[in-house]
């Protein structure tokens, strides 16, 4: 077996294609191995539309980057024929080692996709010694092709949430299938609000799903989301996920702490001590900060006690118990915050809960637990880390799909 046979085997070349030349260019850095591929004379090629064997009409020289040959960059050059089909006219054939329109071989793209799944795009681009722009094109092609084939015919319940995609008022809204135990993301779209529900409905219908068969939608207390659910998924019930209830009061607590810190000196480590759960992994300084905060009887301590009382509400085991505990919570919280100007953020949060108490209590009869919804935030953070340096919302969405959409056969999507 000579060197040509070894390289032919590595490339997976089959007749009529064969290696006719090889050159190692050491004048370039890194060094480049250039392989020339040619088909045997007189070969007839299949029409890319009907598959009929046709004679070559003319040839066009094309080059693709292949996997490195040891430390050397490797490029494949071939004279690709256009065939003259009696039915479809002159058409360029599709070579077996690369997809249409790509400047890379299939094996190179496969390696790139495997790396992107495990590390940030910029890191992958540096390892492969290519621009991140060209790598993003590869990623977006395979992700888009795989997502076009997704089947949503069994989707009956979904959750949605938005995340900031870039600085300023730039958001991406992500939808997950609540019955999908792994890789739950089924759609993501730039923007937020009511229109995202309309776009998702169109996506659902285009992928064999039906809006009429959706029985439950889980989201936060956004008026735009709720309005979109009523308009586009009229047969479904709306459930407010508990994660956003806690998030609502956590933000209110932090607003109170910030405002009070301008008027009084708070104990050190107060910020993280109050944002964490009371039974969570607190440091010694944070435990001391909470104890000192309680002894000072500051308004921040009242806001913290209200936030912590939510855990008592959540521990209810029945809908009836949840309704009673939520009512008690609201009454106690109102009494703690009445007529105190610094506690306005907490009163606002209480009004929001009062307005949506029916949808909040619906979580006790929902068949979907809160863990998968809370995992959305983890997906967002992981995607932002992997897509560091991403150029636009579409590339950010591609990474979300890559990490969390049911597209396991991604590399077969050529």
Question: What is the strand and helix layout of this fold?
Answer:
Elements: H1 3-11, E1 17-25, E2 32-39, E3 45-46, E4 53-54, E5 56-69, E6 72-85, E7 89-92, H2 106-116, H3 121-128, H4 132-148, E8 157-166, E9 170-177, E10 185-190, H5 194-206, E11 216-219, H6 223-232, E12 237-240, H7 242-261, H8 270-275, H9 284-296, H10 299-314, H11 319-337, H12 344-355, H13 357-361, H14 371-386, H15 393-404
Parallel strand pairs: 2-6, 8-11, 11-12
Antiparallel strand pairs: 1-2, 3-4, 5-6, 6-7, 8-9, 9-10
Write structural notes for this entry:
The protein has 414 residues and is an alpha/beta fold. It has 3 domains: 3-97, no CATH class; 157-241 and 368-408, 2-Layer Sandwich (Nucleotidyltransferase, domain 5), CATH 3.30.420; 242-364. 45% of the residues lie in helices and 21% in strands. It is built from 15 helices and 12 strands. Strands 1, 2, 5, 6 and 7 form a 5-stranded mixed beta sheet that branches. Strands 10-9-8-11-12 form a 5-stranded mixed beta sheet, with helices on both faces. Strands 3-4 form a two-stranded antiparallel ribbon. The two termini are 32 Å apart.
């Amino acid at each position: 077996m000579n060197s040509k046979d070894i390289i032919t085997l590595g490339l997976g070349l089959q007749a009529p294609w064969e290696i006719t030349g090889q050159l190692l260019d050491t004048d370039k850095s890194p060094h480049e191995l250039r392989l020339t591929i040619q088909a045997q004379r007189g070969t007839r090629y299949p029409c890319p539309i009907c598959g009929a064997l046709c004679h070559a009409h003319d040839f066009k020289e094309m080059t693709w980057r292949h996997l490195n040959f040891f430390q050397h960059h490797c490029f494949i050059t071939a004279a690709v024929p256009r065939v003259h089909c009696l039915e479809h006219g002159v058409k360029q054939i599709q070579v077996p080692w690369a997809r249409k329109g790509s400047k890379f071989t299939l094996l190179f793209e496969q390696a790139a996709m495997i790396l992107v799944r495990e590390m940030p795009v910029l890191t992958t681009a540096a390892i492969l010694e290519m621009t991140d722009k060209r790598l993003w094109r590869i990623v977006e092609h395979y992700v888009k092709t795989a997502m076009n084939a997704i089947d949503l015919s069994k989707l009956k319940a979904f959750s949605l949430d938005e995340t900031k995609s870039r600085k300023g008022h730039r958001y991406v809204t992500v939808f997950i299938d609540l019955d999908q135990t792994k890789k739950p993301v089924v759609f993501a779209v730039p923007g937020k609000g009511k229109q995202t529900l309309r776009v998702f409905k169109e996506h659902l219908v285009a992928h064999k799903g039906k809006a009429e068969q959706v029985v439950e939608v889980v989201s936060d207390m956004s008026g735009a989301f709720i309005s979109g659910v009523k308009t586009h998924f009229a047969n479904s019930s709306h459930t407010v996920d508990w994660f956003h209830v806690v998030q609502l009061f956590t933000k209110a607590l932090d607003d109170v702490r910030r405002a009070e810190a301008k008027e009084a000196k708070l104990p050190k480590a107060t910020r993280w001590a109050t944002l964490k759960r009371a039974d969570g992994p607190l440091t010694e300084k944070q435990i001391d900060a909470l104890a000192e905060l309680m002894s000072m009887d500051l308004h921040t301590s009242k806001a913290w006690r209200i936030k912590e009382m939510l855990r008592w509400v959540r521990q209810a085991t029945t809908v009836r118990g949840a309704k009673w505990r939520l009512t008690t919570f609201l009454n106690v919280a109102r009494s703690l915050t009445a007529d105190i100007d610094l506690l306005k953020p907490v009163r606002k949060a209480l009004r929001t809960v009062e307005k949506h108490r029916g949808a909040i209590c619906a979580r006790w009869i929902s068949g979907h637990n809160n863990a998968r919804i809370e995992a959305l935030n983890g997906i967002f953070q992981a995607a932002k880390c992997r897509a560091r340096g991403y150029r636009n919302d579409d590339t950010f969405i591609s990474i979300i799909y890559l990490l969390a959409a049911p597209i396991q056969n991604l590399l077969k999507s050529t």
